[in-house]
């Protein structure tokens, strides 16, 4: 299969999308019938970015981040966005460790 010059390297690849219809919770978010639903990022890796994840979240009164209305990790075309944010996750973890180390000094 040939890809178009503008298609990202991951487009149409098995590693960037799978749909687990056998999951007891499928679909865990309501989507129109027949719409592709990516289960690859179940338990969104961007949760740790807090308000900077880029998704459709709210914060509950108890301070918990509520992602129940966000479909970003389940969209087939989100693979590139999510993997591009891994560097931001790495930086967030580095800063967290730095603050922890400074607090221990
Ligand atoms: S709001 Fe969406 S993108 Fe952000 S952490 Fe939640 S599920 Fe992930």
What would you say this structure looks like, in words?
- The protein is mainly α and 105 residues long.
- It has one domain.
- The chain has 2 helices and 2 strands; from the N terminus they run E-E-H-H.
- It has helices at 79-84, 86-104, and strands at 58-59, 65-66.
- Strands 1-2 form a two-stranded antiparallel ribbon.
- The model has no long low-confidence stretch (mean pLDDT 94).
- It binds iron/sulfur cluster.
Brief summary of the model shown:
It is built from two helices and two strands.
Largest sheet: 2 strands, antiparallel
Give the beta-strand count. Answer: 2
Bound ligand species: iron/sulfur cluster
DSSP strand content: under 5%
- Strands side by side in the biggest sheet: 1-2
Residues in helix, %: 10-25%
Shape annotation = globular
| Straight-line distance between termini | 57 Å
The SS-based structural class is mainly alpha
Task: Compile the SSE list and pairings.
Elements: E1 58-59, E2 65-66, H1 79-84, H2 86-104
Antiparallel strand pairs: 1-2
Bound molecules: iron/sulfur cluster.
Iron/sulfur cluster is lined by residues 44, 46-47, 53-57, 67, 70, 72-73.
Q: Main traits of this protein?
A:
single chain; mainly alpha; two-stranded antiparallel ribbon; 4% strand; globular; binds iron/sulfur cluster
């Amino acid at each position: 299969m040939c890809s178009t010059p503008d298609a990202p390297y991951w487009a149409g690849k098995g590693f960037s999308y799978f749909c687990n219809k056998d999951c007891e919770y499928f679909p865990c978010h309501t989507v129109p019938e027949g719409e592709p639903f990516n289960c690859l990022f179940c338990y969104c890796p961007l949760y740790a970015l807090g308000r900077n994840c880029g998704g459709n979240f709210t914060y509950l009164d108890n301070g918990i981040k509520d992602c129940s209305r966000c479909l970003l990790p389940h969209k087939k075309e989100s693979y590139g966005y999510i993997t591009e944010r891994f560097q931001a996750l790495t930086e967030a973890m580095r800063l967290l460790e730095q603050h922890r180390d400074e607090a221990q000094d």
